[in-house]
Design brief:
- With about 450 residues, this protein is mostly helical.
- It has 2 domains: about 220 residues, MFS general substrate transporter like domains (Growth Hormone, Chain: A), CATH 1.20.1250; about 210 residues, MFS general substrate transporter like domains (Growth Hormone, Chain: A).
- The chain has 17 helices and no strands.
- Helix 1 packs antiparallel against helix 10.
Length: about 450
């Protein structure tokens, strides 16, 4: 009876402050991730590191992130305490990220030896710590939403709010970076500029983490799960669940769309469309701004399974349209890229919010296995995107292709931004159409992941 009363209480919708407090809990991760993927190559090459070594660092981070996603998911499922794991990840991310971009070899200072080998060891050390902490924070934050409430609309509102602040985090990095990088042109100050940007972004991210921990309670649905499901949880049962694979496909395909497009967008507008240098900042800014506004709009909707599938399908079809335009847009019509960026921003928000909402619907009340679901899906998408990016980037041309301004010409960049996300979006829509969510809880789980 007590468990039933608690469950009824948790089925109530969350208030706006609770949704907002949850939504800001991933800002530090989002800020550091945007900084990492945007400026890692520029920063390290300006420090004298060869591009191949930078690529090795990036691949190491990607696979460390993927591996730690699985491990973090199992540990969180086994021991619970979402907020503690979130706090541990926050400490690792803040310390490692700041130290990485500090511009000072910490291991060299500790052991008193300053050699290129020791410097690389320092970079790899903070690279691994940063990626491991990032995964810990990500999995605990994503899995937490199923423990905060049983109300589906509130869950999607939390996801939408989080997605909105992801866009805010990216805009913060680009805005502050634009101001810092334009405040001085002296070559000797490049290292200090990156250090200052890292310091400001980490402080802003930590401020949002404090708001998250002050405004979010440790999920209580987890306690109900312990009372009503004493046999524990089993990762094997998820792997035997067909719905798990369909939702995994939808989520991974969504991440392929957003990640691949983010990497090749700036190169496309500069090299293929011959737009001004400011466009490589303006076009992404328009996309993030439109995604932010769309996420706020989605947060206000009432949600059910049919609406999740419908909105995702709309987003996928919008991206399919964008892909066709990217593949056919000539140089003399490059101004239309600004209009297209609005559509891309809306499509990204539609697909991201609803795909994560489907993850939440998959887990439903099985909170004890939620971290495994989020962790395993994160592992797959990180490995897949990492391999795809490595292959695509290896075929990139150093010099832009000479094209007739009136006609589009084939390049690896155009193919990567147009064809790959378009196919992924189309397959995602097809899988969504054949996905039916359960209406009742599955049988209790029986085994932990690691034995």
């Amino acid at each position: 009876m007590i468990g039933s009363n608690v469950e009824n209480e948790e089925a109530k919708p969350l208030g706006r402050w609770s949704v907002l407090a949850y939504g800001v809990g991933h800002v530090l991760n989002d800020i550091t991730s945007t900084y990492w993927y945007t400026y890692l190559l520029l920063y390290l090459t300006s420090m004298g590191m060869p591009p191949k070594q930078v690529a090795a660092l990036a691949i190491t981070a990607q696979f460390t992130d993927a591996t730690m996603t699985i491990i973090a998911g199992e540990l969180i499922d086994r021991f619970g305490h979402f907020k503690i794991w979130h706090a541990v990840g926050t400490v690792l991310v803040s310390a490692a990220f700041y130290s990485f971009f500090w511009g000072v070899c910490v291991p060299c200072k500790i052991i008193g030896i300053d050699t290129p080998l020791v410097q690389m060891i320092g970079y790899y050390m903070f690279d691994i710590l940063f990626s491991g902490g990032w995964s810990c924070t990500q999995v605990s934050h994503m899995a937490m939403v199923n423990g905060l409430t049983l109300d589906q609309t509130s869950r999607v509102a939390c996801v939408s709010c989080r997605n909105a602040f992801t866009m805010v985090a990216s805009l913060i990095v680009y805005g502050i970076g634009f101001f810092i990088f334009n405040s001085s042109v002296k070559q000797v100050e490049i290292k200090e500029q990156y250090h200052l940007l890292a310091t400001i972004t980490v402080l802003i991210g930590c401020f949002f983490v404090i708001l998250f921990h002050l405004g979010t309670k440790e999920p209580s649905v987890k306690q109900v799960s312990h009372q009503t499901n004493r046999r524990g949880s089993s990762w094997k049962r998820w792997l035997k669940n067909g719905l798990y694979y369909r939702v995994a496909s939808i989520y991974v395909l969504t991440r392929v769309v957003t990640n691949i497009s983010q990497v090749f967008l700036a190169l496309y507008v500069i090299s293929d469309l011959h737009m001004s240098q400011s466009s490589k900042a303006l076009v992404p800014a328009i996309i993030y701004l439109c995604s932010f506004i769309t996420s706020i709009f989605l947060q206000e909707l009432e949600w059910n399974n049919h609406r999740l599938k419908a909105i995702f399908s709309v987003g996928g079809l919008l991206w399919l349209f964008c892909s066709a335009v990217v593949l056919s847009l000539p140089i003399n019509m490059n101004v239309f890229m600004y209009i297209l960026s609005v559509v891309i921003g809306i499509a990204n928000a539609f697909m991201m919010v609803t795909s994560v909402g489907m993850e939440s619907e998959l887990v439903d009340k099985e909170v004890e296995g939620s971290a495994f679901v989020y962790g395993s899906l994160g592992f797959v998408e990180k490995v897949l995107c990492g391999v795809m990016l490595y292959i695509l980037e290896s075929y990139e041309s150093v010099t832009p292709a000479s094209c007739n301004p009136a006609y589009p010409c084939f390049t690896v960049t155009r193919f990567s931004l147009g064809f790959i996300p378009g196919v992924a979006a189309l397959v995602g829509v097809i899988v969504t159409c054949f996905t039916k969510f359960r209406t009742s809880l599955p049988e209790p789980f029986t085994e932990p992941l690691l034995t």
